[in-house]
Amino acid sequence: MDDLQLEICAGSVTSCLAAQEGGAHRVEFCDNLLEGGTTPSYGQLAAARDRLWITLNVIIRPRGGDFLYSDLEFEVMERDVLMCKKIGVDGIVIGLLNADGSVDIPRTQRLVELAGPLPVTFHRAFDVARDPQQALEDIIRCGCTKLLSSGQAPTALEGAALLRELQQQAGTRLQVMPGAGVRAHNIAELVRATGCREFHSSGRAAAASGMQYFNPQVKMGAPGQDEYSLVETRAELVRELLANARSALSAA
Predict the structure, then answer these.
(1) In the list 69, 100, 169, 222, which could disulfide-bond 73, CB 3.0-4.6 Å?
(2) What pairs with residue 128 in β-bridges?
(3) What's the domain range around 173?
């Protein structure tokens, strides 16, 4: 049995399918990746569920920005968990903090209970938590089974030392999954440096738009965004990520 798991952060149904074609073990389906990921629409989720045989996890996040949510935003998150269960997804991804940088334990527990029996991953909200060791214990206490983290650093490679410490602290209670800046050229080093066995990457590359007409006077997106470029997961990049990670694992 493969001892290594690769999760692909997919920003569209097209990217979900590319992840599957490339051999990924699961996808974390997120809309609005430029915002750090928000919950996809019902239509996107239903279309992905109909086409995927690999594990489909879905982020529950009503907006970009911080992870301190109002009562109304939390109600949206509860409803989205129920929607995802109705569609038949395989797992839920969440992250909620208090204003003081601690894990929002009551609300995290509520979403874990609502998601049950689906497994729940706590996402990179952890990376802006005040005390990583305490946050890890709180996340485990809430019933989450995975933690997506960069080790509270800009990239997982920069946070590798903390990621190793967190996985040792968690033991068999939770799986730490390095993410952020995980690429084919550095995943082998991450395997060796962290001791982790699950990794998170987007495997994305840009492709030109099919538009033949361009209006240079009008911009719809964020400043500097190339609106005539589509950034999608590529199956060949997923294969390369897996091959490099497995090579490092077999050499260990």
Answers:
(1) 69
(2) none
(3) 5-251
